[in-house]
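Researcher: Going back to the complex we discussed earlier. I've cleaned up the inputs and rechecked each line, so this should be the final set. Can you rerun the prediction on the complete assembly and write out the structure?
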Amino acid sequence: MKFINEIHEGETIRGIYLCRVKRSAETRNGKAYDNLQLQDKTGTLDGKVWDPNSQGIADYDEKDFIEVFGEVISYNNNLQINIKQISKAQEGEYDPADYMPTSEKNVDSMYNELLSYIGEISNQYLHQAVEYYFVKDEDFIRAFKGHSAAKTVHHGFAGGLLEHTLSVLKLCEYFAKTYSIINKDLLYASAICHDIGKTKELSDFPDNDYTDDGQLLGHIIIGVEMIGDAIRTIPGFPEKLASEWKHCIIAHHGELEYGSPKKPALAEAFALNLADNADAKMQTLTEIFKDKTGTDWLGYNRLFESNLRKTSI
Amino acid sequence: MKFINEIHEGETIRGIYLCRVKRSAETRNGKAYDNLQLQDKTGTLDGKVWDPNSQGIADYDEKDFIEVFGEVISYNNNLQINIKQISKAQEGEYDPADYMPTSEKNVDSMYNELLSYIGEISNQYLHQAVEYYFVKDEDFIRAFKGHSAAKTVHHGFAGGLLEHTLSVLKLCEYFAKTYSIINKDLLYASAICHDIGKTKELSDFPDNDYTDDGQLLGHIIIGVEMIGDAIRTIPGFPEKLASEWKHCIIAHHGELEYGSPKKPALAEAFALNLADNADAKMQTLTEIFKDKTGTDWLGYNRLFESNLRKTSI
Amino acid sequence: MKFINEIHEGETIRGIYLCRVKRSAETRNGKAYDNLQLQDKTGTLDGKVWDPNSQGIADYDEKDFIEVFGEVISYNNNLQINIKQISKAQEGEYDPADYMPTSEKNVDSMYNELLSYIGEISNQYLHQAVEYYFVKDEDFIRAFKGHSAAKTVHHGFAGGLLEHTLSVLKLCEYFAKTYSIINKDLLYASAICHDIGKTKELSDFPDNDYTDDGQLLGHIIIGVEMIGDAIRTIPGFPEKLASEWKHCIIAHHGELEYGSPKKPALAEAFALNLADNADAKMQTLTEIFKDKTGTDWLGYNRLFESNLRKTSI
Amino acid sequence: MKFINEIHEGETIRGIYLCRVKRSAETRNGKAYDNLQLQDKTGTLDGKVWDPNSQGIADYDEKDFIEVFGEVISYNNNLQINIKQISKAQEGEYDPADYMPTSEKNVDSMYNELLSYIGEISNQYLHQAVEYYFVKDEDFIRAFKGHSAAKTVHHGFAGGLLEHTLSVLKLCEYFAKTYSIINKDLLYASAICHDIGKTKELSDFPDNDYTDDGQLLGHIIIGVEMIGDAIRTIPGFPEKLASEWKHCIIAHHGELEYGSPKKPALAEAFALNLADNADAKMQTLTEIFKDKTGTDWLGYNRLFESNLRKTSI
Amino acid sequence: MKFINEIHEGETIRGIYLCRVKRSAETRNGKAYDNLQLQDKTGTLDGKVWDPNSQGIADYDEKDFIEVFGEVISYNNNLQINIKQISKAQEGEYDPADYMPTSEKNVDSMYNELLSYIGEISNQYLHQAVEYYFVKDEDFIRAFKGHSAAKTVHHGFAGGLLEHTLSVLKLCEYFAKTYSIINKDLLYASAICHDIGKTKELSDFPDNDYTDDGQLLGHIIIGVEMIGDAIRTIPGFPEKLASEWKHCIIAHHGELEYGSPKKPALAEAFALNLADNADAKMQTLTEIFKDKTGTDWLGYNRLFESNLRKTSI
Amino acid sequence: MKFINEIHEGETIRGIYLCRVKRSAETRNGKAYDNLQLQDKTGTLDGKVWDPNSQGIADYDEKDFIEVFGEVISYNNNLQINIKQISKAQEGEYDPADYMPTSEKNVDSMYNELLSYIGEISNQYLHQAVEYYFVKDEDFIRAFKGHSAAKTVHHGFAGGLLEHTLSVLKLCEYFAKTYSIINKDLLYASAICHDIGKTKELSDFPDNDYTDDGQLLGHIIIGVEMIGDAIRTIPGFPEKLASEWKHCIIAHHGELEYGSPKKPALAEAFALNLADNADAKMQTLTEIFKDKTGTDWLGYNRLFESNLRKTSI
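Model: Rerun complete. Updated structure for the full complex:
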């Protein structure tokens, strides 16, 4: 089977893909057809089923893995497959890992790097509480490693949550070394846990959409509850420290209107907010500029409220 | 001893009052004196100690109960006491209850009324969880009954939290009866608990100021953690319901910029926000208009962003 | 004839409907066809005229009542009628009342309830002025009973203005009983008249669109002029009371940016604003949740700036 | 008697002035004294009554015309009078006109100029309606000529309303000649009447403060009601034109948040808003720069949100 | 050849037009076709190439001048040409001036009028600096005369920059004569040069789009640099005056959020901002109302945040 | 002479200090006195001259260096000096360097570090242009080394501009190493020069106030003009690169409302904005927390819109 990024115009393709989107439509003559969006880890491909009631087209739904057969054409400079046959793929016929976008960096290396930062947290209470999830909770570790950091925007791929967390952590390391007012232990513990609520705010791939709790509570509230769960298991955890740590989590969006119920009040909360914001912006730019060459303007970007382009040197 | 609202110009007073504020100042001749604000449950009275180093003036601090002796004059239409003697009062010489502003309504009656609303919650999980605090937790009940709902603004007196909660609850009862989309159980449980975090956000009287947790976390986060503590004690509490209840708590300020990390998404969350806002506004107006007569304009009010006056009929 | 909410897929239908929308389009082959939206009081139905120049299709325009003949199919889970014949219906062949969305509540009962509130206004001047419209002006009464409260959003059906006014009035009754600073007479008179300008801001059904005066002046200005017209007929109406009443009308949107030229300055103006806002929100939610079951998320709602869903219990 | 702008340091003064402000204060020794602000048409002068209970100081109140006797000193580069004697002046002993700030331009000339613009309004309905106030209503004419355009900010002197109206009118004349889409008659009638509500929004000099109606309704609502009163006297006044004229009045602040209940929708409404805004800004600058020389920075100005200075050439 | 505004339904046309837009599309049957937008100085015309691969259709691109042959039909009340033949036009076969929208006013007359204002600048330094561009720099003069003042919105035609500049200048003349605090020399020099940066911010017709420098720097920064270039050529140009002039340029948008890095601080900067804003708004309205008759509402206009219509008289 | 941070209550002091502020006041008895603020590099001290007309008090003005003699008392927990004698100090009697707050870091070391970053700029054009100021322009180098980065807020001391620039540069180095989309040369050149306009926006110490150009143009415009001056000296400097560099300078405040006339459009402009903002915030916190111990709340901070405190661990 060919990955989507290897497919060319004019080819006849047979392969299994995730049916990410399925939408019925109708030609002006009143003839029904289906628009599909096929996905694998390398990208997406539009598909058309012009004759959805033909014998070759089996029953299938959105989010199914389907085997498709058809011809690839180019339409408005985009590839598109006119699908003649569809059958539902059976578990075992495909490896789900081939169908989700994934961090280009090695997940285990990144995780080991994160563990080494945990090793630097000398405050025993914070150290224990962080280990509660990142060392002792196998389910959490698996979820954290495989999660995205966002539904869209930046780090929207498996491993993205880990990649973003590590990147924020490294910038926090820079801040801790540069500004002596910062307590490294509190900042590291806060950076490592700042987005752990996302493991429950977003569902797993390939769905990667807001969960019910994600909608009702959001990752900030979920995260502060998870912090509370860890703290309750540690006798003698200082109350003041617990509140400071939770404060850093809830204040990390920096402004009430961005969903933080409190603005930063501690130096570490400011540092975490600055690091989170900086990595989110730089990574989003990285994803926007990926595969772009030249200095053509890319058009108005709503997130940055600006037209964007690459630099000439 | 005379309560402050019974004192008249020209009297010579001896009595015990709470020293709410003590600020040193200096005359233009370089002579030190002290500005005091005395308080009892009926109001406050400005005091001047023109000779703070005289023998009659004992050591004392802000928040002490002090016995003062002096003459009451009228200055700029306000009463003021020129204090000649001060001694610190001993516990037992005074009843602290006489020194804190208190709801004019009967606390126990209000509490019984609130209990009757709890009795109407038919969902067993919500019912149990609300009882966890309001029926079974003596310390909580005592704190809840004696707390204010705010440092300043509205309901800033002992019993104010209970009075505000009951008033919000009654408006929620109106909404539940009027709009059939509302689930009464969820709305009642949410209204009753919407401000329970204030028992930890604000310290007790006579201090009634933000606690460390109040500053770092705020009553919304404290409240949602308290809800979580109650739920954990109840086997089988439905997860979806738990999230919905927590959602109503965190969304009750209605807007992100007012400190709610999520905007309302459920009908009950909207209803609670509307009821909380309505009672806060109407009660604030009630306190502003208290003791005012006539239709003179009261001046620009920052909270309402408007000049205010009473109505002519 | 079948009402739209009783039509099923596969039926062949002949009946008279209001042609709410008529838009010409063209297939990609350059063949013209027409898109229609048919309406009766129970809902709307999309129609297609694939052969608009055939003999069976008579001349007709938007807003005409037309008799259509065609087959009902299901397209993308929505019903649609492929229309073969159209003729213009003559007056007398249909009852216009069957073609406009109407309050589910009994209009006369609601109006009687409103009259009983008018009976409670004891201030003779306010009482007379309210009766000027609601008791003595037949044209106004007919218009008020038949009007919607909005073009879209909430209460967008005949009788909606009355239904909304009564609902606001009842909440105002609650406020008047709960908060003693409120003058019941002024609040009732203001609630009853707060949206009377809408009888001229929006045209009658089936059009229900902004009038020229609605665009140029809006219902707040129109309403305050109508109040002035009533007051001029009543000798001795106190000037101060007149201004207070007008103030409640112009301030009922609560904020300058919502079109109130003054922010509330009287307790009654605040109460009216709170009641109007609360009913508008709760009724909008009621209309959104209508016919919805389950706890699926309904998607982002622009008015509430939030994703919405029903509650699980 | 000397006008305030002719008084010098070291002089002993006896004269009648308006007591604009009277505030009791107390020295740190507990001795009462009074702070006064005296006013005549040329400016204001601070006064101190160090011995308010002495025989020479008669009873008097704010807004009284008082005869004062005292010595003028310089304090922090400002003149100040230490007052030894005060008696209340009797009507007839002074000319009120000497005590209110007044336009430097000739009021009658300005009014004649305004009348000549009215003569240019060729639409008979608008012409009659404008004459209703500006030609036929003696009380209105007297009030309009003597009124200020604002409590503070710009044109805050007797005749200021006329001066501002004429200035706006002239700029509107420029617009009408430059942009052919503008109807001169409607723009002139709107410019002439745009602030007539100020005759009732602000009380007369020397008070010049918001009236009760000014607070409750504001000059936009008062003005549109006055327009309505005029129109009602003119049989056959076209309804559409009436609404357009009223629209120009209510939209002349340009934005909802500046108190206009509708944004401009007609070219004349835009032109009036631009002219009103331009004259308000340029006149405010004129008053700020008055008597200033050199290019020193005048400090941050809250209205303009900018530091200001004069230009070097 | 026929100009676009002279073409009628049913005609068969052969002529040369600018191909402003070319977009490929596909019928539901999978058949490719092209959507074109043709332009000349009198307007635009939609075109369809239903058979883009036929022999009669030569190669061509967007922005090419093409000779088209086809039939004009009316579709949804708009004219549209079904194109049978296309060939690329050669230079010499057409006059580019016929294909760009152009000011209706005479460019040379306007320029002479502008020169006469330059003649009124008596300050020698400002006079020389303005002449540096407007008298001595042939390239600049040519560019300035032929430029638009905007990509869209107002004055978006050749000569528009000159027309807008002259209109702003005339309003500034009015201000200079009306308000004595204004220095005419500085205001004229600032008005004349306020948008000179647009000659480099926007590319020439027919492109008329943002240049790279336009995107990166904008016309305010480009303009202030051009002012600096002129000043450097004039020995003894007073530094303070240079800064004041530059200030007027950079502050002419009036608010930071509109792209001015400083708010106005000088009377001339305020006057320029008011004049620029007034002409932009009135000219935009003029273009919107062009060719419109009657008082129908034109629909919500995003720029003015209002529905618009013409006036009835 | 004693530095201000070494002075204790009860001491009698004679020494030379900078008179930063002098304000006349008057006791309630009408007796004049002067309030001073004395300054040296270690801090400030309030002073009172109770008898400003005594023989011992010579003539002096704000910004003079004065020798004072007096007694130090403690007032409201702050030290204050009651001054008996004042004489103006002569040049030579004091070292101005002792009177201005100065970076605690070594200016020459910091400058060398900055030079080493310049050495890393491999693009010859950017390298030359940066050297134009930082290597070849002695006056600029002296000014840059001695300047503050702000009037108040952060880095408001001599050397502060260098310290801030270096700190921003180091964070930019971090970004350049972390995110491969960044061009190091452009980012370094932009970071080094981002605030060079401040050398002309703020006057030298001890004044350290906005200059006329600072008020009229601001450091962003001044800076981009300085960049232009450097570029003009370098033949062949690529135009596109020049615009990109200038863009990074003008966009470094990140938002129009913070005074950037363009929002960032290049990755380097975003990185510079993030680095500038992060260092400004962290350094401001550092200065706020300086000398503070414990975890007491420091009170609401307007810049951060939050109450602040130090962390408990």
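Model: Worth noting: The two ends of chain C are 40 Å apart (CA to CA).
Researcher: Good, that matches what I expected from the previous run.
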